[in-house]
Design goal:
8 strands; binds flavin-adenine dinucleotide; single chain; 47% helix; 15% strand
């Protein structure tokens, strides 16, 4: 079922991102964690896709398992930067055969030392066009960046390219994680002003340990508000306290988003069912 239609039927809803195993020996534990998250009944789930190919073979498999056996509508991430056109066609055929109708179409990060050739994909828009040409019935989502994509020369240019990507056939957008809601609200004004009208699902990352925070911020280019810095300073060295504070901070962000007219949030679960459950428990009255 198409995610764009499913979320319309709910007043407020939460979806979760999970990542597939990196190696065969973690396959069982990752599948178990993803299933535990699915059992919480999110509105949909998404499974990431390794840009360098590493974990990509498991993406379709996990998406299929959770949809067929746990009854959760699934979205598969798909990146193109290191793929050939033939490989993308193969992945699209695989997703279709597994009954996955929703794709998050991404460029992927450019691996260090990777030589981009003329025949390579250069931007996600090319993948969106190929997906729509393969089957216009796929529900296609894309990524956007409230703190601006790290490679973009300016936010204005980033939004200009986002508009082109959306116009190529996107049904909705999911944001990179952000920790400062007013930054997101200001970004939304700019998107609407630029004529981007599709629904935008805010991406929320519950930060439950200080080490994870540093790694995440480095990769995403996301800025950290002073309020969160103080939490990190006070509780970063105490794991249980940091977990509780991180969950409370993410919950607070979600409640504020719901109260400001955003109906669906996408939570980066980091494959942690305990955190996913705590967030849903905190929102139980809102999600009724
Ligand atoms: P694009 O939309 O192609 O944009 C990339 C950059 O190019 C931007 O700076 C943009 O402004 C610029 N640009 C776009 N079009 C043009 C143009 N025509 N001319 C010049 N510049 C242009 N990575 C993974 O490897 N696997 C995942 O599963 C994954 N999941 C993600 C999920 C979400 C919700 C998000 C936000 C990111 C995810 N990523 C994932 C990371 C993502 O692949 C990187 O952020 C990547 O660097 C950009 O991907 P994109 O699809 O946004 O690229």
């Amino acid at each position: 079922m198409k995610i764009s239609s499913i979320v319309e039927q709910k007043k407020y809803s939460v979806s979760f991102e999970v990542f597939p195993p990196k190696t065969e020996d973690t396959r069982e534990s990752v599948t178990k964690a993803a299933r535990e998250i699915a059992a919480l009944g999110p509105v949909f789930m998404s499974v990431t896709y390794g840009a360098g190919g590493g974990t990509s073979e498991y993406t379709a498999e996990i998406a299929h398992d959770l949809q067929a056996n746990m009854g959760v509508p699934m979205m598969a991430h798909l990146t193109c930067i290191t793929s050939t056109r033939d490989r993308i066609q193969e992945q699209l055929r695989l997703l279709k055969s597994k009954g996955v109708e929703n794709i998050l179409a991404l460029r992927g990060d450019i691996p260090e030392g990777f030589e981009l050739k003329e025949q390579n994909y250069h931007h996600a828009i090319e993948l969106v066009r190929d997906i729509k040409a393969f089957d216009p019935d796929f529900c296609v989502a894309g990524a956007c960046y409230p703190d601006t994509h790290p490679e973009a020369p300016s936010q204005k240019e980033d939004i200009l390219h986002l508009k082109e990507k959306v116009d190529a056939g996107m049904d909705f957008l999911i944001t990179q994680m952000f920790f400062d809601n007013p930054v997101f609200y200001s970004y939304m004004y700019k998107l609407r002003e630029a004529g981007i009208k599709v629904p935008v699902h805010p991406g929320i990352m519950p930060i439950v340990n200080a080490k994870q925070m540093k790694r995440t911020l480095k990769l995403s280019g996301t800025t950290l508000p002073e309020r969160f810095r103080r939490i990190l300073d006070a509780f970063g060295e105490t794991p249980d306290a940091m977990r509780q504070a991180g969950i409370a901070y993410a919950t607070d962000q979600i409640i504020d988003l719901f109260a400001n007219g955003f109906h669906t949030v996408h939570v980066y679960s980091m494959n942690n069912p305990v955190v996913a459950k705590a967030i849903l428990d905190n929102l139980s009255e809102l999600l009724k």
